[in-house]
Amino acid sequence: MPTTPAPATTTTTPTPATTAPDPATTAPEVPAAAAPEGPVAPTRPRPGPPARPRPRVLLGGTAAAVTGLLLLVAVGTLLHQPLLIPPLAASMALVAGAPDLPLSQPRSVIGGQLLSALTGFAVLAVAGPGLWGAAVAGGLALGVMQCARTPHSPAAATAVIVALQSPPFWSFLGLLALASLLLVAVGLGGARAAGRTYPAYWF
After folding, report:
1. Of 50, 52, 90, 92, whose CB has the highest number of CB atoms within 10 Å?
2. Is residue 65 within 8 Å of 97, Cβ to Cβ?
3. Model-level pTM greater than 0.70?
4. Is 95:104 a contact under the CB 8 Å cutoff?
5. pLDDT of residue 58
6. What average pLDDT does range 114-143 have in this prediction?
């Protein structure tokens, strides 16, 4: 007689019970640091002394400075007038050593010197020669040069000299203009010899 097959029995594998993590042994999650909002400002390098110039630049600038000042002495000797004054030595140092600066451009060298001299004469006419007037003239010269866009720091000393010594008006201005033009001309030659560009602008 036919036999009825027994129903197949399926065996199930018991799944391991999941246990909750032990808070005593589980390290707490550290939240990630919040990203800073906005761009991060770059750190500026600490300023230091200027780089040593190339030998050609060093020799060319030094030779131009010596040549310019000797030229002032030579022309002053021919004219029997003291053409070399301390502010012009400082002007020559700027023109020969830092021809890229606004203070060294012809507009500033010539215009700054003449405007400062006029400032000194104006103070001289009001206050007369003396240390108090010289101090005022030197300070006012800075403002005059800035207004005229002819910044040239050595020229402030020219205003001081005028207010102290009371030189003749026209002869002093004429000699100062001549000396400033000579310094600019020497600066042009010195820049060519040193392989540099001068001036960056004229006016």
Report:
1. 92
2. yes
3. yes
4. yes
5. 87
6. 97
CA distances to 28, 43, 49, 162 from 46, rounded to whole Å, are 42, 9, 10, 41
- Extract the tokens encoding 71: 């030229």
Which residue do the tokens 């010596």 mark?
A: 66
Residue type, 72: L
Does residue 196 contact residue 99 with C-beta atoms inside 8 Å? yes
**pLDDT for position 24:** 52
Q: What is the mean pLDDT of the chain?
A: 86
Q: Which amino acid is at 73?
A: V
SS3 181: helix
Question: Hey, is 146 helix, strand or coil?
Answer: helix
C-alpha dihedral, 142 to 96 to 158 to 101, nearest 10°: -10
pLDDT digits 0-9 by tens, 151-168: 999 999 999 999 999 999
116, 159 in Cβ contact below 8 A? Answer: yes
Q: How far is CA 104 from CA 126, 163, 165, in A?
A: 31, 24, 26
Phi-psi region of 129 (alpha: psi -120 to 50; beta: other; left: phi over 0): beta
Which of 193, 152, 188, 186 shows the shortest CA–CA distance to 73?
186
| CA 164 – CA 143 distance, rounded (Å) | 19
